[in-house]
């Protein structure tokens, strides 16, 4: 019940303050991850068996996540911090305002006709090569990032906060950060990062589908559902597929398709339906995520009130 009450307050704090400009804990955690990688990654990785590489990665994850999750639990259990700590920890885990701001900077550059600046700005939030994207390509990349990060950076953190409180939000956010740093299917991380990728997949399974449902409820539900049902199974990520297919269908735009990553062309299945996106659709995607976020806040608060009334 407390988590349901604290969730809207944390989102309001994010709305008012945005992301901390300096000393964000996740930046410090990223440095800690790099230090752990230097300790855990073998000097002669070619000679390391697959099972041992995976074990190294799994142990490294446990050493990184468990102490900080237990610290979050201890802070939330302190009488003097039992209200403040969960709200601040969820605020630090969400980053909704930052996501919207990054996307709107890209939109503004496109609206001003500055394609080069738009390419640079979208490069800050996507991993694909952006130097040759046209306006539709920039808009497509931005919207895909907004929809997917809406699930990863907002709704999944909210879900685990509601389920497990502050420790759940911290556990999820650290896991997601590890996946972003180690979850690549390249030569270096294919086995060492295997546990990070799988753990993140497990934690995101239910939240991703609730996010997709949220997009349907607040957009074109019929097209969103059709795209989710037919296109999500073709996507290479079991959790991003439902989120992006449902979101694209709900917005009535076409996403997906080929893209260049680190100099290599990657063919991706199509997502959504309708015309290619424009800069105006970036704003629509941001609003879709924001409305979904406040819908969760309203449902959370309503649930807390009803539970409180039945126990009064």
TrEMBL record:
Bilayer disposition of the protein: Multi-pass membrane protein
UniProt KW ATP-binding keyword: no
GO molecular function: ABC-type vitamin B12 transporter activity; threonine-phosphate decarboxylase activity
Record GO biological process: cobalamin biosynthetic process
Pathway where it operates: Cofactor biosynthesis; adenosylcobalamin biosynthesis
Compartments (UniProt record): Cell membrane
The entry's keywords: Cell membrane, Cobalamin biosynthesis, Membrane, Transmembrane, Transmembrane helix
InterPro entries in UniProt: Cobalamin_biosynth_CobD/CbiB
Entry's family note: Belongs to the CobD/CbiB family.
Protein name, UniProt field: Cobalamin biosynthesis protein CobD
Organism whose genome encodes this protein: Chromobacterium sinusclupearum
Gene name linked to the record: cobD
